[in-house]
């Protein structure tokens, strides 16, 4: 089975069965009565007020997740050639220096491109190996929730990679982000990550 976070109607009953006697049968009703504001509050209620052996619950849930694939979603704006590349090579980790050609293609229509272009390499170096605004070099990011990616933090789908967005903001102002939105088509890449690897990540 592949665990898909958004499909609680599929995995909820299976997890409930797997937890057996560790979680009381009326736990869901008890949590609803406490009216948690956020999902994290429901988790706190479960572990602090309902389950007597919270360590065993955490261990059992972790083992259950590690025993299967975990669905993860990566969003971006890709051209047909980019999509073909992903299908052939898989989703590659970030190499900042390799983003230069992509950013040139996306930003060369900007009226101040020729003035700003000489700074691009130093910006890529600062954001890549320089780790400015986080260490993204050598990483690929994905989320557990397709719904959140599409309806919540959907700037990846509207403007492409976070790295490209940051580089664009350093090169120009935020108004240049609209050029990123003109590139490619909104694309979701679905991954099936082995549970052990997902936990390690």
Describe the structure.
This protein has 201 residues and is mainly alpha-helical. The chain has a three-stranded mixed β-sheet. The chain is elongated.
SSE blueprint and pairings:
Blueprint lengths: L1 E2 L4 H12 L7 H8 L4 H12 L3 H13 L2 E10 L1 H10 L9 H9 L5 H4 L3 H8 L18 H6 L3 H5 L2 H10 L5 H5 L3 E10 H6 L1
Parallel strand pairs: 1-2
Antiparallel strand pairs: 2-3
Helix pairs in contact: 2-3, 8-11
Low-confidence stretches: none
The arrangement of helices and strands along the chain is: EHHHHEHHHHHHHHEH
Helix proportion of residues, in percent?
Answer: 40-55%
As laid out across the biggest beta sheet, the strand order is 1-2-3
Largest sheet properties: 3 strands, mixed
Number of helices: 13
Rg computed from alpha carbons, rounded to a whole number of angstroms: 21 Å
Into which percentage range does the β-strand content fall?
5-15%
Category from helices, strands and their pairing: mainly alpha
Q: N- to C-terminal separation?
A: 20 Å
Mean pLDDT: 92
Which descriptor suits the 3D outline?
elongated
Question: How many E strands?
Answer: 3
Write a brief structural summary.
The chain is 54% helix and 11% strand. The chain has helices at residues 8-19, 27-34, 39-50, 54-66, 80-89, 99-107, 113-116, 120-127, 146-151, 155-159, 162-171, 177-181, 195-200, and strands at residues 2-3, 69-78, 185-194. The mean pLDDT is 92.
Features:
201 residues; mainly alpha; three-stranded mixed β-sheet; 13 helices; 54% helix; 11% strand; elongated
């Amino acid at each position: 089975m592949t665990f898909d976070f958004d499909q609680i109607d599929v995995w909820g009953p299976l997890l409930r069965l797997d937890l057996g006697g560790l979680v009381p049968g009326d736990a869901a009703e008890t949590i609803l009565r406490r009216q948690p504001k956020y999902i994290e509050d429901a988790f706190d209620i479960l572990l602090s007020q309902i389950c007597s052996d919270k360590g065993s619950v955490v261990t059992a849930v972790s083992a259950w997740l590690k025993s299967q694939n975990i669905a993860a979603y990566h969003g971006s704006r890709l051209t047909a050639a980019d999509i073909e590349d992903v299908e052939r090579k898989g989703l590659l980790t970030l190499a900042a220096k390799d983003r230069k050609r992509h950013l040139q293609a996306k930003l060369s229509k900007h009226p101040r491109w020729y003035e700003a272009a000489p700074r691009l390499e130093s910006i890529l170096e600062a954001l890549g190996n320089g780790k400015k605004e986080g260490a993204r070099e050598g990483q690929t990011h994905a989320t557990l929730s397709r719904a959140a990616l599409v309806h919540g933090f959907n700037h990846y789908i509207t403007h492409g990679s976070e790295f490209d967005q940051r580089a664009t903001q350093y090169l120009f102002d935020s108004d240049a982000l609209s050029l990123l939105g003109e590139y490619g088509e909104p694309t979701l890449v679905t991954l099936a990550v082995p549970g052990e690897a997902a936990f390690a990540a």
